[in-house]
């Protein structure tokens, strides 16, 4: 279990992470979701003691990371797959970690097999690895000590669709065996496919958290109409606010309410459904004001 | 080693080291390995050994054998080693930042002071190894020289070793302070040069500068004759200034800074 309590980290006047609290539970995959620069990596670095918090705390199975005697055997960490010495072979990278943790050499072969890196690939130097291979090596590095907790920062980066599917299966199985998995991503679809629980962060603050199904349930109704402006005006007259999502709107109301408004005003609806088509709408909505790109109505990039 | 056999195995079977802190010896072993498992590191180790052999052979072939002895051979070895071992010590520490392997190193061993101490021990191990090689070569070649073992004392050998160790420690300290391979190497070699230039220009301050001029102060250690009390004083003050101070600041910085 990972417990983050009132975590704040400032850099001078800039607040990277502000009063963040959440829990990642054993047996579940927790997705840590947010746009780039939202504070995901900073939070994860604080978890494993690479960055010190300005205030607040993180415990892993009830202990501070620094108090774990042999942390690699309890917490598997992948923060940046590129942060390896390019001159070492993949096998050597794992062998060094195994030696540090006091693991037998056979464990290196086990995890190499687990992440499907072939013996010949493992003999190559890391600088000749593709990003996908580095990512697999990084996951192998995290799994090496057979830890109860996994902390993975953007683990799907650079993996091809088959690789992402493989990782999903791996993490699912890991959680089913009682492990705690926290993975970050800036891609919602990725998190949606893997995570049981979702923690969304934007500009250093938690904007939403809960189980994936809970978050979808609160998503309201999605509507698309030919006469967009008229619909928005009519809905506003009824006290409903339409927020633009894609080329339609999301609204906190029952579908029937929107249907009535449309019927009364003779507005042509092309789509009307519960906004369960994905967390994407919610994600875009929740992070709309925290994103660099301003999301403009009717404009698709 | 646990003699208890019938302890109910936890979910992680046969696991003894799970809650055991990696021993210091193991960390030193890891650091020694990390120096030798990259091309740059391995070549540097090979170069230290090969150059030591070449320098000795060269002196014997091109020098006047009759004027040479054990002391001259060992001093010759000290010249290339004095250059290369500090670079090795710098690399030991800066590669964690240059190659960003610090992310893995410091998550596996969150107590960064232990990692630095292990690296320091590894650096001293390499210095000792290089010194042993130099002594062995000199022992083998001395019978071919005219002066033999004239002037060899335990004191002198100790001073020589101390000189090489302080040099390597200085490299290590600069590496820890600057956390950048290129920056540390350049500073390591440029700082004494700048000081000696200052000393040669500002002659009136010569006596005072001797207390801070690292190169001159430490150079005395390589002379066959024993340093005077004042010279020992110079060695102590310059070591404090150029080794202890950057090392302390460097360790403080490593322990506090964010590893990215």
Automatic annotation (TrEMBL), chain A:
Cited InterPro entries: AAA+_ATPase (IPR003593), ABC_transporter-like_ATP-bd (IPR003439), P-loop_NTPase (IPR027417)
Keywords of this entry: ATP-binding, Nucleotide-binding, Transport
GO MF term list: ATP binding; ATP hydrolysis activity
This protein's record includes keyword Nucleotide-binding: yes
Pfam families: ABC_tran
Domain ABC transporter: 2-228
SUPFAM superfamilies the UniProt entry points to: P-loop containing nucleoside triphosphate hydrolases
Family: Belongs to the ABC transporter superfamily.
Entry protein name: ATP-binding cassette domain-containing protein
TrEMBL record, chain B:
Organism domain of life: Bacteria
Chain ranges passing through the membrane: 42-62, 74-94, 115-140, 160-179, 186-205, 232-252
UniProt key word tRNA-binding: no
Keyword field: Membrane, Transmembrane, Transmembrane helix
Protein's recorded name: ABC transporter permease
Organism: Nocardioides jejuensis
Native organism taxonomy: Bacteria, Bacillati, Actinomycetota, Actinomycetes, Propionibacteriales
């Amino acid at each position: 279990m990972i417990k983050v309590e009132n975590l704040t980290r400032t850099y001078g006047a800039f607040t990277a992470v502000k009063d963040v609290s959440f829990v990642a539970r054993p047996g579940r995959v927790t997705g840590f979701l947010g746009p780039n620069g939202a504070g995901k990596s900073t939070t994860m670095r604080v978890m494993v003691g690479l960055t010190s918090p300005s205030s607040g705390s993180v415990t892993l199975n009830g202990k501070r990371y620094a108090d774990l005697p042999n942390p690699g055997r309890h917490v598997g960490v992948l923060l940046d797959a590129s942060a390896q010495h390019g001159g070492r072979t993949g096998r050597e990278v794992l062998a060094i970690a195994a030696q540090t943790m006091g693991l037998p050499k056979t464990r290196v072969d086990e995890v190499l097999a687990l992440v499907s890196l072939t013996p010949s690939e493992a003999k190559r130097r890391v600088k000749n690895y593709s990003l996908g291979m580095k990512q697999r090596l990084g996951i192998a590095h995290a799994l090496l000590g057979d830890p109860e907790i996994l902390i993975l920062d953007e683990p799907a980066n650079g993996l091809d669709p088959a690789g992402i599917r493989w990782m999903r299966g791996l993490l699912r199985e890991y959680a089913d065996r009682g492990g705690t998995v926290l993975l970050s991503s800036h891609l919602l679809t990725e998190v949606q496919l893997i995570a049981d629980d979702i923690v969304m962060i934007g500009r250093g603050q938690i904007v939403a958290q809960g189980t994936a199904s809970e978050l979808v349930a609160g998503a309201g109704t999605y509507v698309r109409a030919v006469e967009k402006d008229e619909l928005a005006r009519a809905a506003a007259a009824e006290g409903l606010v339409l927020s633009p999502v894609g080329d339609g709107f999301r609204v906190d109301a029952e579908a029937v309410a929107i249907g009535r408004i449309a019927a009364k005003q003779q507005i042509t609806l092309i789509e009307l459904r519960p906004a369960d088509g994905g967390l994407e709408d919610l994600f875009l909505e929740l992070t709309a004001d925290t994103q660099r790109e301003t999301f403009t109505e009717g404009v698709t990039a | 080693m646990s003699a208890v056999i019938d302890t109910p195995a936890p979910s992680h079977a046969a696991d003894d080291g799970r809650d055991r802190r990696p021993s210091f010896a193991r960390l030193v072993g890891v650091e020694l390995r990390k120096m030798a498992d990259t091309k740059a590191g391995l070549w540097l180790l090979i170069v230290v050994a090969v150059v030591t052999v070449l320098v000795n052979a060269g002196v014997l072939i091109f020098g006047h054998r009759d004027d040479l002895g054990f002391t001259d051979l060992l001093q010759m070895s000290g010249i290339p080693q004095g250059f290369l071992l500090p670079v090795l010590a710098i690399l030991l520490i800066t590669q964690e930042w240059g190659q960003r392997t610090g992310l893995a190193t410091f998550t596996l061993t969150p107590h960064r002071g232990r990692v630095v101490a292990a690296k320091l021990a590894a650096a001293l191990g390499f210095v000792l190894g290089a010194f042993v090689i130099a002594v062995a070569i000199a022992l083998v070649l001395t019978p071919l020289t005219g002066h033999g073992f004239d002037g060899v004392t335990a004191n002198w050998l100790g001073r020589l070793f101390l000189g090489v160790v302080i040099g390597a420690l200085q490299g290590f300290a600069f590496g820890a302070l600057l956390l950048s391979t290129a920056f540390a190497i350049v500073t390591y070699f440029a700082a004494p040069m700048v000081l000696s230039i200052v000393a040669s220009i500002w002659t009136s301050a010569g006596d005072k500068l001797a207390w801070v001029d690292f190169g001159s102060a430490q150079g005395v250690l390589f002379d066959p004759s024993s340093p005077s009390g004042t010279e020992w004083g110079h060695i102590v003050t310059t070591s404090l200034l150029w080794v202890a101070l950057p090392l302390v600041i460097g360790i403080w910085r490593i322990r506090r800074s964010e590893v990215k």
